[in-house]
Write a structure and sequence with these properties.
eight-stranded mixed sheet, 558 residues, D-Amino Acid Oxidase, Chain A, domain 2, FAD/NAD(P)-binding domain, globular, 30% helix, six-stranded mixed sheet, Glutaredoxin, alpha/beta, 3 domains, 14 helices, single chain
Length: 558
């Protein structure tokens, strides 16, 4: 290819083949968008790095169709305990969180990347390694980029969209001259990926508060653990020092429970915490996700999970806009929604870090007495666990939210049901074709909106017909944008339902209660599992008007 020739690239160029870039490739490919993924590194990471997949991330991976591979490879941690002065101050069990995955899946990032890479390649996407992005030039119609290959040759490409998943030192971000606003924290930290002999829980996270700092132990598999601890500020050092196993052991002896011996280190490292974030995740046809958009304290293990959820939010939106089935403004909701989540995660992680690293003896004493009292409150525990597992992630102010309720929506007015912008909740259902038990989540496929149609507890043929008519009107105007799901307590005599419509029974009315469906009710659930619109009584005109704002009718879509 000549130096002045421009190679037309795939629909989307993804820069960075870490967990976030690989998940972006999955989300796009499953939505029918061709993508090309490049990475400057010669191979995926061999380090444990990000160590946990939380419940909400597992739900989204399930929606993409492949959570089992991660469940098989990881270890389930069922809770966390906080210790101070040799006593357990707080214990939080995850067994009761409202998810099909009520646990923290402990899995090294090296394994997460391996599984994602295998999954991506099984879908026909080749990961191009040792390919360095040299220049980026976006304009109104696409993005030009220069790629440098391992042999030193340059390739000039043009792509409609570019997603920057190239980490905290993002080349794309630097090329566009964007401010990564924030600061570096003064303390140095150590990380030790080691094997541990001695009495310590292997199925929960253990956190130890000590007068000299904090220490945390994260179980991995068998006797392998991740230990992190702060070692105080070292302003004279340009870079944090790599610890020795003896130094790690000394910190564990000082702050831990006693009787533990570290051995066979897999990875020892020093690090500092940066708290930084882009003001906007969208810059025309360039979109940022993961560490390229936000970095923060590792407290809570939210970083990689937040990045994966960035691209699960982005994938379906970009697919619809690129196909001409949605208006360009739909991508602005990615920017607004995920930027707000980034701010929230940054704020929460910083607060947890500050509390854990208090230096004043008086402040430490107050913390150690007050935290157990506050944490004993049921609603506080519930909120903490929902935040930790990321089940609390929601978009309450999103432009994609809407609702219509009439005089019969008393339960909603009293706070029932699922609010627009909130995560859809699961419920047990029955497949009438087989009589087999199933769930609402099992019907969500991660690529298409779901039009959830609930008949109410006492349906008749007329009510069923009304809901079937809504599904028909939606299909007539917007084609395959949404896949209807009709949920009724049991078979309804005389009701006529098309053979192509999905039907589930709700004999215990569990779904009806969770969605406060006291009569014919509809919910529009986004591909990423959040409620976009709801109506009680079910009303087609308001539904169509809501969709008209961001989506293109089927007869005018290109």
């Amino acid at each position: 290819m000549g130096a002045d020739e421009v190679q037309e690239s795939a629909d989307v160029l993804i820069v960075g083949a870490g967990p976030v870039g690989l998940t972006a490739a999955l989300a796009l490919t499953r939505n029918g968008v061709s993508c090309r993924i490049v990475d400057r590194n010669a191979a995926r990471t061999d380090k444990s790095k990000a160590l946990v997949l939380w419940s909400r991330t597992l739900e989204l991976l399930d929606g993409l169709g492949g959570v089992e591979r991660f469940l098989d490879a990881g270890m389930r941690a069922h809770g966390a305990s906080l210790y101070g002065h040799g006593k357990r101050l707080v214990h939080a069990s995850l067994d009761d969180v409202d998810s099909p995955y009520p646990f923290a899946l402990m899995i090294p990032q090296s394994d997460t990347e391996r599984l994602l890479e295998e999954w991506v390649e099984s879908l026909g996407v080749r990961i191009e390694r040792q390919v360095d992005l040299r220049t980026v030039a976006p304009d109104a119609g696409g993005v030009g980029a220069t790629l440098v290959h391992p042999d030193g040759s340059e390739e000039t490409v043009r792509t409609p969209w570019l997603i920057a998943c190239d980490g905290a030192h993002s080349t794309v971000r630097h090329q566009l001259g964007l401010d990564f606003t924030g600061k570096a924290e003064p303390d140095d930290w150590i990380l030790a990926d080691v094997f541990v002999a001695g009495p310590i829980a292997t199925d929960e996270i253990s956190l130890y508060w000590h007068e000299h700092g904090v220490l945390a132990m994260f179980p991995m598999i068998g006797e392998r653990f991740r230990m992190i601890a702060d070692v105080g500020p070292h302003p004279e050092l340009a870079q944090p020092e790599t610890p020795t196993l003896a130094q790690a052991q000394a910190l564990l002896d000082e702050r831990g429970p006693g009787g533990l011996v570290l051995k066979d280190p897999v990875w020892l490292s020093g690090f500092r915490i940066n708290e930084r974030k882009l003001a906007h995740y969208r810059h025309g046809r360039v979109l940022f996700a993961g560490d390229a958009a936000h970095v923060h304290s590792p407290a809570g293990g939210q970083g990689m999970n937040t990045g994966v959820q960035d691209v699960c939010n982005l994938g379906w939106k970009l697919a619809l806009v690129h196909a001409g089935r949605a208006r360009d403004a739909l991508l602005d909701t990615f920017d607004v929604e995920r930027s707000e989540i980034g701010e929230r995660v940054l704020r929460n992680a910083a607060a947890m870090t500050r509390v854990a690293t208090l230096r004043s003896p008086l402040a430490q004493s107050l913390r150690n007495h007050l935290v157990p009292l506050i944490a004993s409150l049921e609603f506080v525990q519930a909120r903490f666990k929902a935040t930790l597992t990321e089940l609390a992630v929601d978009y309450p102010t999103s432009a994609l939210n809407g609702e219509h309720h009439g005089a019969g929506a008393h339960a909603w007015l009293l706070g029932g049901g699922v609010l627009p912008g909130a995560r859809a909740v699961d419920a047990p259902l029955v497949d009438p074709a087989t009589g087999a038990p199933t769930t609402l989540f099992a019907t969500l496929d991660g690529t298409t909106h779901t039009l959830l149609l609930l008949t109410g507890p006492e349906p008749d043929a007329g009510r069923v017909g009304h809901l079937v008519g809504i599904a028909s009107a939606l299909h007539h105007r917007f084609g395959e944008l949404a896949n209807p799901l009709l949920v009724l307590p049991d078979a309804v005599p005389g009701a006529v339902v098309p053979a192509t419509m999905r039907v589930r029974h709700d004999p215990e009315l569990a779904a009806h209660r969770r969605y406060a469906a006291t009569a014919e009710t509809l919910y529009l659930i986004r591909p990423d599992g959040y409620v976009s619109f709801r109506a009680l009584p079910a009303d087609v005109e308001h539904l169509l008007a809501h969709l008209d704002v961001h989506f293109v009718p089927a007869d005018t879509a290109r």
